[in-house]
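Can anyone check this?
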Amino acid sequence: MFQSAPILLGQYRPVDSFLHRLDARAKMLPITVVLILGLLTNSFLFYGVVLTSLIVALLFSGVGAGQLARNFKPVIALVIVTAAYHLIFSGDKSEIWFKWGPIVLRERAVLDAAFYSLRLVLFVSVAFLITLTCAPSELADAVSKLLAPLERIKVPVQDLSLILFMAMRFIPVLYEEFQAIRNAQVIRGVKFTGSIVNRVKKTVSIIIPVFVAALQRADELALAMEARGYKSGVKRTSYSRLEFGPREWAFAVWSTGLIIVLWWVTRGEA
């Protein structure tokens, strides 16, 4: 009755797939290129091809189509807000496509709404892919290895990696905390239905105890780290050894090359 689909973002799923077996650094290179080129292009074709490839990769990584669709539901609200903003405030001087009373849809506004909504879905899919196929510890180690040269200019790379690991590890924990508090409220007769204002008020009553629980967990974690002798800035070794072999090189080079070629071919398209 109270169960809902578990979120994928930040929740690693140990499935035996090609992407799971790859070193995290091999996946971070093409993903970084996608994020950079995604901000530089205005091509619907580029977004469409990359997004389709990401969804196919997610499906082949052990995520069912139904489950993937359920976990994209929270993104729909952000897509609607993004699209509504551009439909209302964009394209003042472009051609009118549709007009009915005070409602006016302009060509540029519709295109901007579709484009930025697609960009949002693409970036969320990238986050789903990297968190689904990489354990938080593997991702933190990969970030630490990739940013290791910055230690020469006194950047606390290992501390940043630890922060990233803890943030990703606590996303599903806080989500479970949210669900538990919500279910407790429902048992006590609270109804999360009705107008948007009513839903927001009821949601605030959940966010506050979740925030308090997060502070308590952070305090317990700090005490546990102090009890184990953790000190910032100390050189550390890794429990697991990352292996960047021929398979990783082939994946990183080929996928990055294909992304760059796709961006170059579609760079002049709207």
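Reply from J.R.: I decoded it. The chain has ten helices and two strands.
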